[in-house]
Recover the amino acids of this structure.
């Protein structure tokens, strides 16, 4: 009896110390399960069912048939290639520009006016994405768009924008950079504020050049920010969807028919099994690459 009493007292004391944490964490945990994990589980379950019975109370399970179909679908394979290619380009471009922009904002070049650049950079992040992409669609218009009006005013050739397969990737990349890059800059700025200034001073005393100091002193200290930003960017761009729906509708042709948009189209055409199979493949790919990227960035021999 005394043993049970001691265990009870220990649990009561432990809960008393962490009770406030559990109290505040519980609503978010419940929302994550109900609004996040549960729909994902249902989607994975649907991917193993026949499309015509997927939404019925007693669906017909067809095993991996939907997965076999999508991997034999040339449209899906092309959309997967387009998604991966765009993701690699977008991650590298966004993180590189965000890193050097954060270096510019944290340098001594700016003083009182730094807050203006920070505000202009972060303002798109809190702007509704649909509204922002609608504006970009108008700006890319070949008839009345501001982009070609500016290019024409300074004597440069017109930019085909979203009307040509050769330029549509660059067009949506620019629009997404405008929307997302401020988030990455904020993360980098937070890491820059924690850099060890003594290491920078020592590098200057050794007459280290900019590139050597950047690669040997600054960059290794930015590992936490690089890890967070690279994982977030990887997840964000692999599931690129809103800009496609608003601006390109997968076109021109199939130039921007990314996996998320193709799955959406299949679902809209009542191909529930195939659509959720595509979504599941995309989800599994994101998780594997995100964990792999996290592991790589956490390696002790990382440079």
């Amino acid at each position: 009896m005394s043993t049970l009493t001691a265990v009870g007292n220990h649990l009561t004391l432990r809960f008393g110390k962490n009770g406030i944490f559990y109290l505040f964490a519980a609503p978010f945990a419940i929302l994550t399960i109900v609004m996040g994990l549960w729909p994902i589980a249902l989607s994975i379950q649907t991917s193993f069912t026949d499309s015509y019975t997927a939404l019925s109370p007693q669906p017909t399970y067809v095993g991996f048939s939907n997965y076999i179909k999508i991997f034999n679908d040339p449209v899906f394979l092309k959309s997967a290639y387009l998604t991966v290619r765009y993701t690699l380009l977008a991650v590298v471009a966004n993180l590189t520009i965000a890193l050097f922009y954060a270096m510019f904002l944290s340098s001594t070049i700016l003083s009182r006016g730094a807050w203006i650049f920070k505000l202009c950079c972060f303002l798109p992040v809190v702007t509704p994405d649909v509204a922002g992409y609608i504006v970009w669609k108008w700006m890319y218009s070949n008839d009345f768009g501001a982009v070609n009006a500016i290019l024409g005013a300074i004597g440069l050739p017109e930019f085909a924008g979203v009307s040509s397969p050769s330029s549509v990737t660059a067009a949506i990349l620019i629009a997404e950079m405008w929307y997302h890059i401020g988030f990455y800059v904020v993360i980098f700025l937070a890491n820059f504020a924690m850099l060890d200034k003594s290491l920078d001073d020592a590098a200057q005393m050794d007459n280290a050049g900019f590139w050597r100091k950047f690669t040997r002193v600054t960059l290794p200290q930015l590992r936490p920010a690089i890890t967070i930003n690279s994982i977030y960017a990887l997840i964000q761009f692999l599931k690129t969807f809103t800009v496609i729906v608003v601006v390109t509708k997968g076109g021109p042709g199939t130039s921007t028919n990314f996996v998320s948009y193709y799955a959406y189209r299949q679902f809209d055409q009542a191909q529930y099994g195939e659509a959720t199979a595509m979504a599941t493949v995309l989800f599994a790919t994101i998780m594997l690459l995100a964990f792999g990227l996290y592991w790589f960035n956490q390696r002790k021999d990382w440079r």
